[in-house]
Input
Amino acid sequence: MPPVLQVTDLRVHFFLDEGLVRAVDGVSFDVETGQVVGIVGESGCGKSVTMKALLQIVEPPGRIVGGQMLLRSDGAAPVDLARLSPRGAEMRAIRGAEIALIPQEPMAAFSPVHTVGDQIIEALLLHQRKWRPTGPALSRADARTITVELFQDVGVSMPGERVDAYAWQLSGGLRQRAMIAMALSCRPRLLIADEPTTALDVTTQAQILNLLRDLQRRHGTAIVFITHDLGVIAQIAHSVVVMYLGRVMEHGPVDDIFHAPKHPYTRSLLRSIPSLLATPQSPLPTIAGSIPHPLGRPPGCAFHPRCPEVMAECAQRTPALRVIERTQSAACFLYHHDEAEP
Amino acid sequence: MTAPVLDVRRLQKFFEVRRGFRRRVVATVRAVDDVSFAIQQGETLGLVGESGCGKTTTARCILRAMAPSSGEILFRAADGQVVDLAPLPRANLRPLRPQIQMIFQDPFSSLNPRMTIFDNVAEPLLVNGMRNRRARLDRVAALLELTGLRPEYMHRFPHAFSGGQRQRIGIARALATEPRLVVADEPVSALDVSVRAQVLNLLLELRQRLGLTMLFVAHDLSVVKHICDRVAVMYVGQLVELTTTAALFARPRHPYTAALIRAVPIPDPRKPSGDVALAGEVANPANPPSGCYFHPRCPYVVDRCRAEAPALRNVDGHFVRCHRAEELSLAGA
Output
């Protein structure tokens, strides 16, 4: 089966007064049906901008300047999201219905002056032709029944009462469950989870990760899971995209990324995290320096000033992302000498 | 044995919720409820728990950023005297302030953006009577060097520095007055992964070189395990377990600690973790459940837990607040 989503050479640039920021600069990855693709990276790596590009909600002065984002639906020709107008009817029919978002801060995502139920009902009524392609329109009462079922599905206790609650009356965990119910309400083909557990406590995080795993197994929804937490990625993703300063450094199955990382950045990153399994109080291996300012991006491979295995060509040319072992690819001159397109 | 640097005894901090025209007290939030622990010279004690468990309130009471409702905060000052900070009025706290310093969570809001690095770091020196600018310049240069920054940069402003560098500046400022106790409130949780290791290493190194005594407040168990000698676990304002780091992670005695350890996602896809989730939500500290506060979520609950509040007691060197601490055999990391 062809992938649900195929991102090829995506470029999102921000045209600031101070200069050009290449927030996403040639990103490619595929999302297969029923798969969780983890996008991991530190601040400024472009993971959130990639998410915004997929939904066509990049704010000016940012703009998608190149690349393809092919979304496939059953039986229909694939749609290139990059070609759609952000405000056009076509994109509005996809946003929320075909691609849904679970944001990081459910408190900021829900309106505080409408009940959470009303907000989900609104989405259902808006995209109702997905539920009922023909026949009479969905009534409010029907939509409410569906919402209560959705709440039950995502493990909200007392769903009948909770639909009438405001977001601020719910605890952090329940709010995130309600958000997931809203994201699932239109049975999207692709779910984007943008750091969905970062604002939660560790025991609540475990609950939400369990829920996402369970929903994913039952509904077979493809998920793009964005996070900076390597622990979360290891536990939920099937394949992992490692990003640094707008480019994909490495891409591969989760087990290979964690047990046979190829790119020096991935390797250093994995070594530098204090894990419950690591030796306590011993100095951690570190990555020298800090993440460069987006306007002061180093030439060549963006990681070269911090790379323990830097070579002469790293500062001059930018390595392309190439398959180096079965399904694992890396953008590094240690493995090949192909230069990326400018 | 000499007296500990800090000895907190039965600390309580309640907040009253007032409503209506007469500002009547409608509820009392027991943010910190009977917390006791001691920190020895040169030791790092971790204080962990989920949001709302009272760990930050405990830290703020120790710093006397707020006055505790009851309990004692015995601090061994530089002159060897043991003072109870809890009832001290502001004027009497003043000479003690330089001896207890804080490292903040967010390096972007904890430095004054209108002051240069020199002014930020030298402020505590100036306030505490170092009037000679030359002396302050030398001291700040030494502090920056100690925390791995280049002294030449001291006349720049905070915006020119990255998150990790700013956190180093925050640490330099906390160490300026040679404090006997450093309270670090989530010092690495706002930092990126690649920078976090650098700051953790710096804290470990400073501990060794300066013999720092530290209270390390955090929610991230893997960080706590890496840096602390002993760990205190809090749940809804109470201390539920306190023991050495090795013992806590090898064999937790409280079901909440065990659940917290298991909930941490391990960065290894071959070691499934974080899947044994606790049911339910953290209890409301304004209206805690009967008996043991943890009983509605505890997988090992018995009738006694619902009726009778367990006391903190010593079980094989673990301080633990659980009726069933002896009989339960809980898995660690």
In short: The CA atoms of residues 110 and 119 of chain A lie 8 Å apart.
